[in-house]
Amino acid sequence: MRRWLLGISGVIAVVAFAALVWEPLVATEYAAPSPRKYDVEIARDSYGVPHINGKTDADTAYGLAFAHAEDDFSTIEDVVAMTRGRYGALAGSDGAKVDYVLHFLGARETAERRYTELSPAVRAVAEGYASGLNHYAKTHPDEVRLSKLFPVTGQDIVTGFVLRAPFFYGLDSVIGALAEGKPQPRESAARMTPIGRDPEMNGSNAFAIAPERMADGKTWLISNSHQPYEGQVAWYEAVTHSGEGLDMAGALFPGSPFVLLGHNRNLGWTNTVNRPDLVDVYKLVLNEAGDKYRFDGKWITLQTKRIWLPVKFGPFTLPVPQTVYRSIHGPVIKNKNGAFAVRYAGIDSVKAVEQYYRNTKAKDWAEWSKSMAIGGIPATNFVYADKTGRVAYIYNALFPDRKPGFDYTGELPGDTSAALWNGPVGFDRYPKIVDPASGFVQNANNNPFLAAGPGSEMKPSDYSPYLGIERGMTNRGLRATELLAADTSITPEELLAIKMDTVYSKQSWVGAWMAAFAALDLKDDPELQKAQKLLAGWDWSSDGNGAADAFAERIIRLGARANWRGDPMPDARKTLKEAVDEFQLRFGRIDPPLADIQRLRRGAVDMAMLGGTDALRATTMWDPDQADKKARVRHGDSFIMLVRWDKNGTLKSESIQPYGAATTRPESSHYTDQMKLFVAGKYKPVHFEWADAVKNAKRRYRP
Question: CA end-to-end span of the chain, whole Å?
């Protein structure tokens, strides 16, 4: 018996040891980019924002990587792990879901196969950035959590773009519904994706105002992104310069070798999430064995690949087997209802990296629009302005070139090439407004047919229904257009007040949602009657001045996801009871002041944060798991940038972040030093020119 127990103990020990060491043993270690000396200097301003000056664009990317790693190496390491299919070894089951998506999309294979299609300049920038990360990892080995993850390659950086881009326009919902055997459109619960949880709630506001509309005669661009405050798609601010012209101020995501939105000397742009129909689902006809599918009368072998997902459980990392499939249409999911292929915008393409790079290098509208015509960025609206006074709005999307005769909003036949699109359509077919008579353009995740005010709008009838252009409307879009259109001479103070507006329009979806509560017959429930009366007295603003502001925000938040998806709204009575029960449990009352319960928190800093779920001053999502049961804002207004050019083309810009530049460094003074300005709606200067950055530098060094 004792011998048997010793034998079992030995087997358990072997299995445990294998679980500890198998993942790094089987992981592929990639060769570092070719060695070279990088010539770059970093200057940190009083808020810790890095200003990077390199001899070449690649030098600048090297410095950007090192600076960003100084502030947030752990998140960048997460992103790199995602590009290798090893995120589960860091983040457990949530990470393994992202690893599955990487294999499902074939993102790594796309990046490696198409890497040489990128220009030599872009490849040099990607490899310079990778080399900067490698240098940081080598000099800070105690921060590396996953062996054999470094050195990083240029292909890793490109894979990050390929993996994350489709999730900004809703691919997660399609994959989630298919995996659960649910019909399209989706009913997806919150799940982990390559761009974090709840990607459908990512938003943004954007405004570009021509000089004739502004009282100060300047051209204005306001970038106001709504992203998570932490994680893989939280914004990081930087200013870059190079002897080759990579001169840009703005923000980027961890893993990006250049700024993704902001401005150079001559022009600037910002983005807001749009949601065109860019995903089609095809039902395959399989043979009895399930290993072949019928296509145009022929049986084609279904591509099959066995993968092993690393999943961290405590100290152990276990291999979990999965199978991924692929047809001529794209990746395939098998569920209880059959086999379904997914085809999506940007499939098997790396052009987004080239396009973002060319955008930053553009010197005028002609060069910038030529870059936009590359057709690499799968989705997102672009709002543009430049020093000549031009403003523009582009409803950017890689619209599938769909053939008439099929309902692309539903399930498509997978056995015929007639339903298989090859795209995208040309840039000339994108909805766009350039230099409107109104003198302004805006977008706040609303449909593109409300962008420039009366007399300057595009007509829906001018665009093919096969483009799948969204028709949804946000309160923010309505308010922005109402306020901008009503003022023919907007002062800077008025423009910033519009950006910080906390009012809900009764013409928005919130008006109909509140009417549903007013219409309830609640004679049988005095507690719900009190809540109904409280809502009836709401002042339609989340400025913190009304007794009903907090409760109204909770009600709005409970309906926002359904409205955003276009799903039926929840039952009003059940929603009201849910909100009442939650507030009574959390706060002992249904009318706590909004400033008391809605907080911006980090480390030892705890401040009131006003604004609303779908207000222009956005506090989109709460993190309710706080010890005192209050709500920590974790998503909403994030990186904000104000850019303007005067009539001589002189540039001035300001910016602000919710927390600070030292994203994951609690010991740094820049971990929370922007919070006070952020909650007050104030801004700090952007020292764009290198000479200005040097003059205001608190630290200068070479990595």
Answer: 62
